[in-house]
Specification:
The chain folds into 2 domains: 270 residues, inorganic pyrophosphatase (n-terminal core) (Alpha-Beta Complex), CATH 3.90.1640; 107 residues, Roll (Diaminopimelate Epimerase, Chain A, domain 1). The chain has a 5-stranded parallel sheet with strand order 2-1-3-4-5, with helices on both faces. A 5-stranded mixed sheet has the order 6-7-8-10-9. The N terminus is likely disordered. By secondary structure, it is of the alpha/beta class. It contains 16 helices and 10 strands.
Length: 451
């Protein structure tokens, strides 16, 4: 049996002195020239190529001058946790004295910036400027509620935008329809990092650091976090993302990673000197994600923010324990899902997609479950769990050729009352429906895929 490498004729553009198999492999990974193997920040797109950058950095400059209270609203996965840590560390390095963060609880708040989460945040700590990281592009109600409170809102996100955008003061998202940024593959942490690059550049132009007697921050000290979030979010490794990962791994291997990453490597039985992308994606990433899945992502964020090695070790222990619990729970849910599939009528075997629900399933694990079943049966799968009385939360995974977010958007247009909320990407999405609508939704899903 021979292995066929999928590559376009672009491999012929690579240096003739390189072996043909190597050229084909590199071309299949999107490389078109020898320069694509040179990883340096100087070669990357400029921050001002991102739509919304000028508005965002101007807002943050004024916030720094006035020492306003800045609140980071993070997502509850590893990309969200690293984005939050990057934002807080970076803003503090630039002179921000009042930076706090909040991350929604998956079960009680739902996804992203919602009016409920905003009320909870304001009750705990009022803010002047709110920045979403790895979320916010679909938070119309949450942004509107914040603006009503007089809060300035900056959205940084990488998820596909809806037709109607939130009324934020600034939106940075490489997937905006009028954004000319050359890479649409960045994770949320990459978008956040770009905001910091743009802000530092703007502050230097305003002579902020001289006025405040501050040393301009070396943002490469955050690149280990950017690499971790990029790998953990499983985004395509285009030139930009490969640069983040290459530079981040270099920093980790030199022993210069943040204390949280070093502690998580130790608790995974990994040596930082030989750290690779597999360690980030399969050893560290799942441990951080376990906090958001089963408990509270604040544990994961705290691990990435602390500079105390003893404290980092304690957080790493907690995250390791949570990940072990996650594994056990996932295994149980997989067995239950297989039982549901075996019990389906014969005609269901020809279904183009599966909708699975069991009342005892955990909200934090349904995404993993959907991924497993999708890989096994090679069709889109949506796994549902109880969210609150009468409501189900779904996590969808898809296959090449079926853009699951577009499928959900089609359903929302055809049957406006069926979806309470949805968002995501081509291969993964989240949604909310009423429990009583599950059977009808399954039919609509099948019809939308055919369409």
């Amino acid at each position: 049996m021979s292995i066929q490498i999928r590559a376009t004729k672009s491999w012929q553009k690579l240096p003739q002195t390189w072996p043909t198999p190597v050229r084909k492999v590199l071309a299949a990974r999107g490389l078109e020239s020898a320069e694509d193997l040179v990883y340096s920040l100087e070669q990357l797109p400029k921050p001002n190529e991102l739509q919304g950058m000028s508005e965002a950095v101007s807002i943050l400059y004024q916030a720094l001058k006035r020492q306003q209270r800045i609140l980071i609203v993070a997502d509850f996965d590893a990309d969200g946790a690293t984005s939050c840590a990057v934002a807080i560390r970076g803003l503090r390095q630039m002179g921000a004295q009042h930076v706090d963060y909040i991350v929604p609880n998956r079960a009680s708040h739902g996804y992203g910036l919602t009016p409920l989460l905003l009320r909870h945040a304001i009750e705990r700590q009022p803010c002047d400027v709110l920045i979403t990281v790895d979320n916010g592009i679909a938070s119309l109600d949450g942004v509107a509620a914040a603006r009503e409170q007089g809060i300035t809102v900056i959205i940084t996100d990488h998820h596909l935008p809806p037709e109607v955008l939130p009324d934020a003061d600034a939106i940075i998202n490489p997937n905006l329809s009028h954004c000319s940024f050359p890479s649409q593959a960045m994770a949320g942490v990459g978008v956040c990092f770009y905001l910091l690059i743009g802000l530092r550049q703007y502050l230097q132009q305003q002579q902020w650091f001289e006025q405040q007697q501050l040393t301009p921050p070396k943002l490469l000290t955050l690149i280990d976090l950017v690499a971790l979030g990029t790998i953990a979010d499983v985004v395509p490794l285009d030139k930009l993302n490969r640069t983040w990962v290459q530079l981040g791994l270099k920093r980790i291997r030199l022993g210069q990673a943040c204390e949280g990453i070093k502690a998580l490597l130790r608790h995974s039985g990994k040596d930082f000197v030989n750290c690779n992308s597999e360690d980030l994606g399969f050893a560290i990433g799942p441990k951080i994600n376990a906090a958001g899945r089963l408990k509270d992502m604040r544990i994961g964020i705290a691990a990435l923010l602390t500079d105390d090695s003893v404290q980092a070790d304690q957080y790493a222990m907690q995250l390791t324990t949570l990940n072990e619990q996650r594994r056990e729970l996932e295994q149980t849910m997989q067995q239950q899902a297989q039982a549901l599939l075996l019990a389906m009528p014969k005609q269901s075997e020809a279904a183009l997609a599966y909708c699975l629900y069991e009342e005892r399933w955990h909200q934090g694990i349904i995404g993993l479950l959907a991924s497993r079943i999708t890989a096994q049966y090679h069709r889109p799968v949506i796994a549902f769990a109880q969210h609150r009385e009468g409501m189900l939360k779904g996590s969808a995974r898809s296959i090449l050729g079926i853009h699951i977010r577009d499928v959900l958007a089609h359903i929302a247009i055809q049957s406006p009352d069926i979806l309470s909320q949805f968002g995501g990407h081509a291969m993964a999405a989240g949604l909310m429906i009423q429990q009583q609508d599950l059977a009808q939704f399954s039919l609509l899903l099948e019809q939308a895929i055919v369409t």
